[in-house]
């Protein structure tokens, strides 16, 4: 994680300053070890980046752990989008990944002044009572390299993409391991000569190597069919963001579908949340407090310790934690909002707002056809 901070703070700034023709060696860090930023390394006299021609491995731990060369960095795109097959390192969590396809989401950011005309209605009783405007932002559906999953499991769920069972009388949930949604600014692109650079069971089912293309990994028909068939529950449409006392909370809701239970309809959503410490102070998440409003007129309050059984610590070295959860309503729409209670090292507490977000249903088209595995049952 410390290595991810080095990537985020150093590479993004320096890559933007240097010529787009300049290339930089991409490294996959040992995420379980601490990186020593004081170690002197050869630098480019122009921009201060580690010399791209330096091929010597750098030991990150006394017992002999080394950095592994995986490719060559490319300049991050300031405009446009990355194409299917683009390799990257995640700038926050540090894992290797590959882009499957982009989503164009509406970002509702309470930290910036509104610039567009599109607005979201505040749910009844939500804090703030201010109009929030949406702007288009690009996110990507990606595959995570399974070799990196053990190193990020304490900071980001690698089975966050879930769907309902394909028969109406079941409430079972299934997960597809190693899928993630990544914001455009979290992509650190690189290229490689390796024809199978990502280890994932779906990699060769979805992509094939074609040297004449840039990037050289192009979608197979199976990827297009999978995306078209499962679009309803994969689609990312809205992203909500708000910062309180240097803790930024980002929420992405997904509609999963409807099931019949005891002669009534039950609507299901999953929501992915990322907490990120933008400051220097160490804090720990202790409690969550949710309010869930249903179109049927009910208002439910949920309190509990931590999130998904954890009480994560957010520090400068490990600033982010990402998880997903689920909610069901007996109505086709509703709203959620709430707060997290965090503790400082001196024992004092403060509350961080969770931005209100809508739970909207759509035509039920749950995945009951083409699903090329692998899957994990969460029932």
List keywords for this structure.
single chain; 379 residues; mainly beta; Immunoglobulin-like; twelve-stranded mixed β-sheet; five-stranded antiparallel β-sheet; 4 helices; 22 strands; globular; disordered N terminus
What does this entry look like structurally?
- The chain has 379 residues and is mainly beta.
- It has helices at 2-17, 149-152, 203-206, 221-234; strands at residues 24-28, 68-73, 87-90, 96-109, 119-120, 132-144, 161-164, 173-176, 179-183, 187-191, 207-209, 217-219, 238-244, 247-261, 264-277, 283-294, 299-305, 313-314, 320-329, 333-343, 349-360, 376-377.
- The strands form four sheets. Strands 1, 2, 3, 4, 5, 6, 9, 10, 13, 14, 15 and 19 form a twelve-stranded mixed beta sheet that branches. Strands 16, 17, 18, 20 and 21 form a five-stranded antiparallel beta sheet that branches.
- Strand 11 and strand 12 form a beta hairpin.
- Mean pLDDT is 80; it is low at 1-26, 28-64 and 365-369.
CATH class of the largest domain: Mainly Beta
- SSE run: HEEEEEEHEEEEHEEHEEEEEEEEEE
| Class by SSE composition | mainly beta
Number of helical stretches of at least 4 residues: 4
Shape: globular
CATH H-level homologous superfamily name of the largest domain: ApaG domain
- Into which percentage range does the β-strand content fall? 35-45%
Uncertain spans: 1-26, 28-64, 365-369
Q: State mean pLDDT (0 to 100 scale).
A: 80
Instruction: Describe the sheet with the most strands.
Output: 12 strands, mixed
Question: What topology emerges from the helices and strands here?
Answer:
Elements: H1 2-17, E1 24-28, E2 68-73, E3 87-90, E4 96-109, E5 119-120, E6 132-144, H2 149-152, E7 161-164, E8 173-176, E9 179-183, E10 187-191, H3 203-206, E11 207-209, E12 217-219, H4 221-234, E13 238-244, E14 247-261, E15 264-277, E16 283-294, E17 299-305, E18 313-314, E19 320-329, E20 333-343, E21 349-360, E22 376-377
Parallel strand pairs: 4-13
Antiparallel strand pairs: 1-2, 2-10, 3-4, 3-10, 4-6, 5-6, 6-9, 7-8, 8-22, 11-12, 13-14, 14-15, 15-19, 16-17, 16-18, 16-20, 20-21
């Amino acid at each position: 994680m410390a290595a991810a901070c080095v990537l985020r703070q150093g590479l993004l700034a320096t890559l933007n300053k240097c010529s787009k023709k300049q290339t930089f060696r991409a490294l996959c860090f040992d995420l379980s070890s601490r990186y020593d930023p004081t170690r002197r390394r050869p630098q480019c006299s122009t921009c201060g980046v580690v010399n791209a021609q330096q091929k010597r491995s750098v030991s990150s731990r006394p017992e002999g752990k080394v950095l592994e060369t995986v490719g060559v960095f490319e300049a991050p795109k300031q405009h446009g989008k990355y194409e299917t097959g683009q390799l990257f390192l995640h700038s926050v969590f540090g894992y290797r990944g590959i882009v499957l396809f982009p989503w164009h989401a509406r970002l509702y950011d309470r930290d910036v002044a509104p610039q567009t005309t599109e607005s979201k209605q505040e749910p009844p009783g939500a804090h703030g009572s201010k109009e929030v405007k949406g702007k288009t932002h690009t996110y990507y559906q990606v595959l995570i390299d399974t070799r990196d999953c053990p190193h990020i499991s304490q900071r980001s769920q690698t089975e966050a993409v879930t769907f309902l069972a394909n028969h109406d009388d079941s409430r079972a949930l299934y997960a597809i391991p190693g899928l993630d949604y990544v914001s455009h600014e979290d992509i650190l692109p690189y290229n490689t000569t390796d024809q199978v650079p990502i280890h994932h069971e779906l990699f060769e089912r979805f992509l094939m190597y074609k040297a004449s293309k840039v990037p050289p990994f192009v979608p197979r028909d199976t990827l297009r069919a999978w995306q078209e068939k499962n679009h309803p529950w994969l689609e990312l449409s809205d992203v909500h963001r708000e910062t309180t006392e240097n803790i930024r909370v980002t929420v992405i809701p997904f509609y999963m579908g409807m099931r019949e239970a005891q002669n009534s309809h039950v609507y299901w959503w999953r929501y992915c949340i990322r907490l990120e410490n933008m400051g220097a102070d160490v804090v720990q998440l202790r409690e969550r407090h949710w309010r869930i409003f249903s179109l049927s007129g009910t208002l439910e309050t949920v309190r509990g310790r931590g999130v998904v059984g954890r009480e994560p610590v957010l520090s400068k070295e490990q600033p982010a934690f990402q998880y997903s959860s689920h909610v069901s309503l007996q109505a086709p729409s509703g709203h959620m909002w709430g707060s997290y209670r965090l503790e400082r090292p001196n024992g004092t507490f403060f509350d961080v707002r969770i931005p209100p977000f809508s739970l909207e249903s759509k035509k039920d088209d749950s995945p009951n056809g083409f699903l090329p595995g692998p899957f994990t049952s969460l029932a």
